Each structure stands twice: as structure tokens, then as C-alpha cells.
Amino acid sequence: MKYMVMECHEGYAVLMDENSRFVQAANLRYKIGQTVTDPVLMNAEESNRGRISMHISKFVAAAACLTIAVSAGALYYSSNYKAHSTVLISSEANVRMELNKKGKVLNISAENADSDEIIKNYDGKGKDMLDAANDIIDIEKDKGYIENGDTVDFYIKAETPSEYNSYKSDLITGIPDVKVKVQELDGKKPHEINPPEPPKADPEKDNKKPEPPKPADKNTPPKPDDKAEPPRPADSAPPAPASPPASNNNAAQQVKQPEAPPAPPASPDAPVPPKPDGGAAPKPNDKVEPPKHVDGASPHAPALPKKKIQLKKEVLGTLSLSEINTYKALTPLPESAAPVAPATEADKNTGPAREALPEAENIQSPPLPIPLP
Amino acid sequence: MNSDAHQIISQVYKAKKDSHAADELIEAYMPFIKSETAKFLNRPPDKSDDELSIAMFAFYESIRNYSKLRGSFLKFAALQIKNRLIDNYRKEKRNKGQISLDVSDDDKPDLKDTIRDEHDTYQENELREATKQEIDELSAQMQDFGVSMTDVAENSPRQRRTLEICQKAVQYARNNPEILDDFLRTKRVPLAKLAEGANVERKSLERHRRYLVAVLLICTNGYEIMRGHIMQVLKGGENK
Predict the structure, then answer these.
(1) In the Cβ-directed half-sphere of B97, how many Cα atoms lie within 13 Å?
(2) What ipTM was predicted for this assembly?
(3) Is residue A78 part of a domain?
(4) Whole domain around residue B149: which residue ranges?
(5) What are the tens digits of pLDDT across the range B218-237?
(6) Looking at the complex, does the CB of residue A31 fall below 8 Å from at least one CB of chain B?
(7) Which chain B residues are closer than 8 Å to A4 by Cβ?
(8) Domain boundary among B93, B110, B144
(9) Which B-chain residues 151-210 have CB contacts (< 8 A) with chain A?
(10) Same domain, A150 and A258
(11) Residue A14 forms beta bridges with which residues?
């Protein structure tokens, strides 16, 4: 690009380029009218650039301030107003405390009617978790829900194990008058933790025909023998369901056994064990008809002798809730049923069903977090 | 001390608007400019040194770009001079492998004297003299419009789009000599006619009124050399 020198000054020269632009450049001993090719041009955008950069820097500064403010606010909110942990005090009344990151109580809520009574006139917001827990326990003592020396369950849900341990140790050391039992709350309220369903023998499942073995690989076709003779259900001998009386809860029976009347001899009313072909096997949905008494009376409590009722109460008192539920699930029990089904003709083919009984007895229900009332 | 600072700032702000005041300020601060150049060159600068010219130009740029927010003017100017000289040094460094025609040993003649000069120096001087006369005449005519070359340089469009808009208007004026006659007679730029005729925004033309004065004057009769310099643009199409 050629420039024509239009004007010369002490510190600069005015040049006109071939695009009719007028520019300022360093006056390298130029003379007016001279044509030059490589001038040192003024940084024309300097002033504009300064202005633009000023605007940009203002904008960036404002954005940075905003970001800092927002992040500081978020941090403050996160550490002060966001629920990070939960402590559930479980006795007669269940009280849930939500804690912030600093361990201060954000919210106290009642889980049942009793706890409503407790927290009705108590506002523990902003208090330390331990103080609030002590206050609640004091109130519970005052109301008579617990007494000194009772065990109070605490369920803690914390974000980190260290938080959990910290709360746990605080609770164990900081609550003097009652026994503290601390457990982890896995997102469930204790009263929501249902006892596991008793292991039901699924006769249909048990009698289900085993599927023929699938070829492990397409390249390896099954043997012709496998196709020709699929395993027969009778041959495979699936574990037949135990008869309802036999599969009834074992623990109760074990306790009953010493005083229970001896098993009556095999009678036509006795429950018939399922047949191996599965057709007569009792389905889970099928109502298990309790064996009728000979005199046709109901097998339920009215027909039981008083001694048995007392015994039952004693046994129920010693059982865990899961065992009771299992027991209840399988009621009505035929009182006349013997603990062990009498051997019938069909028992010859239901050997595995008998063998399955000890397995059912061995199934242990998980421990319950709630003490029985 | 404080009054000196205020004085120089007022001088700088005056020089921002007045090119003569800028020249005076540069002349007044020549020792400072030379000292800054000497710091860079590690020797006292000579009048023929490009670095001194660039330092003076950097000082002029400092005047133009200075604001009170930037602190002391002399510190600001010193930084500007230093940066400019460094930029120039880097630019020259690219051509380091080349031999200057002006450099000569004592025994041998200048290199440029050994090369056959195809330029007709006499003709060049004559052309330059004629160009100078045109430029002087143009400057005088621009004075009638109250516009100086520095004003035009400051008002010249920098963005390509704006330049094209101005060139459209100039082209339209060239194709319609009566507009140029009106312009010379009334000494006012007929912005409305130019905007309407060239189908461009009047506001864009208004922003570059002083530039349009210079270019429209060049397009009138009597400035053949300058017209020839920018003829390619006036014919249409910008030189890349």
C-alpha cells in the first residue's frame, strides 16, 4: 500500500493511502508530497480500544462481583439453610431433626401423634443437635414417654461417615440419663421399616417345571438327547411345598412342642400333602382351608382350651415381630394339625417337600429396629 | 510540584484538540523524549535516527490517548515511548538478515551507489514538487471549510463498511457534477442529496463530514495527482 504524505508535523505526519483513507503516522523525516510504503501508523483504535476495554473490564468486574456474591450466597445457604443430616429420635414418639452442615437444627418435625405433643411447644431451631436432643428427651421424660435408664434409638442420616461418627459419639456421650442406641437411617423412617415378609414356600414355583437347559453358545447345539428327553418334573423332584401346618412358624411350634398335644394319628381330615404332579399343590393365592374338626367346630380361639391361649400369649410375648407376622400370616392354624404331617401315600413322592422344611425353619428374619410395644 | 503536574495536564488536554499546541508540547519535551530514546538505545539519539522520530510519534500518541485516570502523564508517555520502540525493534528484527543500502564502510562506496538506479530522481522530485503544490492548495481550500489535514485524519473512516458508504457518496458526487458545484459554492457538504442519491444513511455521512470535505475537494478539478493516487478506489473497488 502506498501512502502520500499530506502534512508533516513535529511528532507525526498525515498520510493518505490509496483507499483515500487519511492516517497519522510517525514522521520519519518525510516531506509533503512524498510517497511512502511502510509507515509507522498510529494505533488508531487506541482510544476506542481503551474505551472498549474499559467497558469490558467494567462488565467483567461486575460479572466477577456477581459471581462471587452468588457463590458466597450459595455457600452460606448450603452451610446454614440446607439440610445436610437428619437425626431421628425414636421412642414412643418419633421426632425428626434436620440439621445443617454446622450441626444446627433447621427443622423439627413430628412423626406421629405423640411426637406432635412433644414438639408442640418446643422450638429448637438454631440449637445445637445435642442440646435439642437433650431437650426433646427431657420433654419426653416429663410427658412420661420414657424414663431414666430407658433405651432411646437414634437414627442418623449423614452425608459423610465422619459426620455420622461425630453425631454418634456426641449422642452417646452427651445424653446421660438414657441409654442411647445409634443406628444409621437409610433414608427410611423406622416406622416405615416393615418387617420382612416371611419366606413363603411357593409351591407353584417349587413345582414349576425346570426349563430345559439352554445352549450356552449358539455354536454348540444342544445334544439330541436333551431335546428328546426334557427333564421331567417328577424326575427332577422339585422341592414340594411344605404343608401349611408343617410350614407354619417353627419358632412357635418349637416353643409349643413341649406342651403341645401329641400329633393325632393320620385321619382323613388331616391336610393332604401336595401331589408331585403339581396339580394339587396349594397355590399361594389359594385359601388354605384349615382342616376341620371332626365335630365341625371352628379351629380358632373359641375352640381352643384356655391353657393354649395363655401359652400362645406367652409365646407371642417372647417372639420377635417378624416371627409374629409370619405366624399371623399363616393363620388360621389348624390346631389339630400335627407339627409334622402324617405320612400318606403321596409322601412317597414328596420326599423333597419334607426336606424343604428345615430350610424354611432356618430362614432368619432380619432384626427389627423398633422395639416391640 | 502539584502545580507543575496540573500545568502539564492542562497542556496535554489543550494539545489533544489543537495540533499546533501538540507540536509545541512535543518541542518543549524534546529533552524528555531524547532521554527516553537514549535509555532504549543506550546512546544519545541522533536527529537522523528513526527511533527518535518514533519516540516523538509515541509522545504524540500519549497526548492523544492520555486521560487523568492514567496517572502521571510523563510516566504514561515514557511507557508509551518504550513500548513503541520495542515494537519497532521487533519489526526491524525481522529484516535483520538484509543489508541496508545506506550502510557503508569507510573504504568502500555505499551499496546503493553500486546498484543501477532505474528511478529518475529529477522526475521524482518534480512530481513530488507538483504534488506538494496540490496538497498546499488543497490545504488552503480546506481552510475555507474550516478543516485541517489532522482533522481529516482523525475523522477518516476506519471500518471498511463505513469507508464504502463514504466512497459511494463520493462516487455519486463525481457522477453528478452539479452536486460538487453546489458544494464549492455553498461550502457545505450536501449530505441530504448524497445520502438520497447514493442510497446510504445520512447519519453515517454526518459522522465523517470533514473527511468528505477533503475527498470531495480532491474530486473537483485541479487535483490530478491526488486523484490519480486514489483513482482505483474512485473507479470502484478497494485496494486490499
Answers:
(1) 1
(2) 0.85
(3) no
(4) 124-235
(5) 888 778 888 888 876 666 54
(6) yes
(7) 131, 135, 226, 229
(8) B93
(9) 152-158, 163, 167, 170
(10) no
(11) A7, A24
